[in-house]
Amino acid sequence: MESVIQFKLNKIPKQPGVYLWEDKYGQIIYVGKAKNLFNRTHQYFNKTNNQKTSLLVQNIADIDFIVVKNENESLILEANLIHKYQPRFNILLKDSSNYPFILLTNDEHPRLLYTRNFNKNKGVYYGPFATNKSNRYDTYNLLLKLFPFRKCQHVPKRKCLFYDIGECLGPCIHHFNKDKYVPYIKGLDDFFKGDPKWLISQLTKNEKSASKLLNFEEAKRNLDLINQIRIISKEMSLSQNVTLKSDRNIDVIGYYVYNNNITIVIFSYINGKLLAKHQQISDIYGDVSETTTNYLNQFYFKSFNLPKKCFVNLDSNTLKLLSSINKISFINPITGKYRSILQTVANNAKTYYQSNYLVFKKHQKTNELAFKELKDILSIDNLSLINVFDMSNLFGSDKVGAMIALENGQFNKQLYRKFIIKDINANTDSQYMYEVIKRQYSKVIKDEGTLPNLIMVDGGLIQINVTIKALSEIHLDKIIPVIGLVKNNQHKTRGIIFSNKKEIFLDPKSSLYMYLFNIQEEVHRYAISFFKKRNINSMFKSRLNDIKGLGDKSIKKLLGHYDNIANIKKASIEDLSQYVSKDIAIKIHRSFN
Fold first, then answer.
1. Exposed, middle or buried, 536 (CB in 10 Å: 0-12/13-18/19+)?
2. CB 372 within 8 Å of CB 511
3. pLDDT in tens, 488-515
4. What is the DSSP letter of 93?
5. What gap in Å lies between CA 500 and CA 504, rounded to an integer?
6. What pTM was computed for the model?
7. DSSP helix, strand, coil percent of the chain (3-state; round to 5)
8. Confidence bin at 141 (pLDDT 50/70/90)
9. CA 443, CA 582: separation in Å to the nearest integer?
10. Phi, psi angles (nearest 5°) of residue 401
11. What is the mean predicted confidence (pLDDT) over 382-400?
C-alpha cells in the first residue's frame, strides 16, 4: 500500500486543488486544500511532523484529489467537502458557516446585503468569497458607499442620513420605479466581473469636479477609491465553479483517452455545491462514445437522487439516446460556465489516469489470474455471472439484504440489488437469507431473466444450507452451485467452504485471497451503506413525525435534501423554509436545537 501511495504522490500535479486522505476502510479522514497539490501532499511525509500529523499519516492508506483553477475555488471546495464528510482529523470548518456572498435583493428598491445563506429567490448573488479574508466585509462596506441602494430594512416615511450624504436615492421621499437603479445594477455586475469602468468613470467625474472647486481632500479621496476599486475588482473577478448560483443537482462529465484506455470523471453538484467526484479507468470497447455511453447508463441505472442535467462532450445523437434512457437532460455545453467546468473535469480525468494507471493495470492483471484460479478450484468453466449476498441489521431493526453481481469477474453495479426484509417474524441472518434468495430467484424465473453460474454467501454452512433450501423450493438447487466465504476468529477472510463441509484455506498473500476478500468487502459495504441509510432515515423520520403540522410529503422533501440529523440541526430557519412553511421551519429548528 505504501508503494501505491508513493506512486500516486509522485504523479500528483503541481496545481491548486483539494486532497483527500483515506484510511484502509476507504473512509475520508482528512480534507485539505493547496496552491500546489504536489508540494503540499509530500510535506505530510517529512520526519519533522507534529504528533497530530504523525497520527494522521499512520492512518493514511490512499489519496484522492480534485484539481481546480485557483485558490478561491480550492478554499470553497475544501469547506464543502469538510461539511459533507466531517473527517475526524479536520478540527476547523466542521461546524463553521459557509463562505459569504454579497446579495443584491430583487425588491422594488433593492438592498445590498452581506450573507452566508443562499436562496435564489431573493435576488442576485455574487461569490462566495473565500480569499481576501480580512477585507471581505470592508469590500461590502465600500460598495454600500459607492452604490446608492436602499440601506433601511423597510422604506421609512422620511429621509435619513444616507440620503443626505448621497449614499441612497431616497425612495422614502421620491416616487420612482426600479428602472432608476438599472445603471447602478449594471455597474455592480460589471464590478464583480472585473470590469469597474462605469464605477471608475463616476468617481473620475467626482474627482475632477472636486479639483475645479479646489477641494483637494475630496479629490484625493476619489483617487484613492479608484485605486482601491481596481485592486478589489481584480480579486473579485476570480471566477469559481465550485459553488453555483443554483440549488439544482447537476453532473459534469469529462474523460481522457490514452492507449486504448478511457478515464471517466464525474463532478456531482448537490444543491449547487460540488460535493462528490466519481472516477473510473476502463478499457475501450468499440469506440469512445460507445464506452462512455455504456458506463453512464450503468452509473445512472436505478440511481437515487438523479441530477436534473448532465453536461458532457458527446455528439447530439448520443446525448438524445442517454437522455431518453436515463430520463435526465444530457447537454454538450459549447460556451459559458459549464464548458469551463467541463474542461476542469477533463483535466481531472487526465491527472487521475496519470496517478492511477499502473495501479489499475496491476489490479486488472491480478483479478484475471484470481478469476482463472477460482474457476479451476470450482471446476466451473463458465462463470460469466456470480451473485454474492450479505445481510445487515441492528438488534432486529431495519433488517436488510444486499446482492452484488460480477460479470466475467468484474463488478457490475447495474445488477446490484437491495432488499428490505418483509417477514416480520424473521429475526436471524439465516432467515433473512432464506427470504432474500427465494424472492430474488423467484423474480428471475418469473421475468425469464439470467440465472447466475454461482452464488456466494458471506458466511459458513448455516448460510449455505438455508440458501440451498430456498433454491430447492423453486427447483434451482441442482442448477446453481453455492459456496460460502468464511472468516476466522479475527473476522478476516479464511477460505471457501462447500455444502459438503469441505473447506479450502487461502494464502493471505495470494491473488485469489485478495480477489475474494475484495468481493466480501464490496458486498459488506453495499449492505451496510443500505442499512445505515435506512437506519438514519428511520430515526430522522421518527423525529420529524413528532412535529405537529409536518406531513409525509414535506418529510419526504426533507429526507431527500438533508442526509442526516446533524445536517438538519445545522440548517437555519431560512434554509428550512425553502422546503416547508416558515412556521413549520421554526418548529423543526426548535425541535432539533
1. middle
2. no
3. 777 778 889 999 989 999 888 888 998 8
4. T
5. 12
6. 0.57
7. 45, 20, 35
8. confident
9. 46
10. -130, 160
11. 78
* Residues facing residue 416 across a β-bridge: none
Supply 429's cell numbers.
441472518
Instruction: Judge contact between 579 and 558, C-beta under 8 A.
Output: yes
Cβ contact 324:296 at 8 Å: no
Burial (CB < 10 A; 0-12, 13-18, 19+), residue 385, is middle
DSSP-assigned letter for residue 100: P
DSSP-derived pairing of the beta strands 261-270 and 417-420: unpaired
Q: Is the CB of residue 20 less than 8 Å from the CB of residue 28?
A: yes
pLDDT digits (tens, 9 = 90+) for 257-280: 988 889 999 999 988 888 888 988
To the nearest 10 degrees (0 to 180), the angle between helices 316-326 and 288-300 is 20
**Alpha-carbon span 545 to 113, nearest angstrom:** 36
Alpha helices for 453-510 (secondary structure H): 461-472
Asked if residue 128 has a cis previous peptide bond (ω within 30° of 0), the answer is: yes
Would you state the cell numbers that stand for residue 209, as one nine-digit string? 469636479
Q: Determine the Cα–Cα distance for residues 132 and 490; give it in Å rounded to an integer.
A: 52
What is the pLDDT at residue 233?
A: 67
Tell me which residue of 136, 134, 139, 145 sits closest to 116, measured CA to CA: 136
Cβ pair 21, 56 in contact under 8 A: yes
- The set of cell numbers assigned to 571 is 440548517
The position carrying cell 428550512 is: 576
Q: How many CB atoms lie within 10 A of CB 524?
A: 16
- Which triple of cell numbers denotes residue 1? 500500500
Are 59 and 1 contacting, i.e. CB atoms less than 8 angstroms apart? no
Residue 388 sits at the vertex; the CA angle it makes with 442 and 450, to the nearest 5 degrees, is: 45
The Cα-based distances of 479 to 84, 454, 458, 471, 474 in angstroms read 46, 9, 20, 9, 11
DSSP string, 560-593: HH--SHHHHHH--HHHHTTTS-HHHHHHHHHHH-
**CA–CA distance, 288 with 298 (Å, rounded to integer):** 16
Q: Give the Cα separation of 132 and 376 in Å (integer).
A: 64
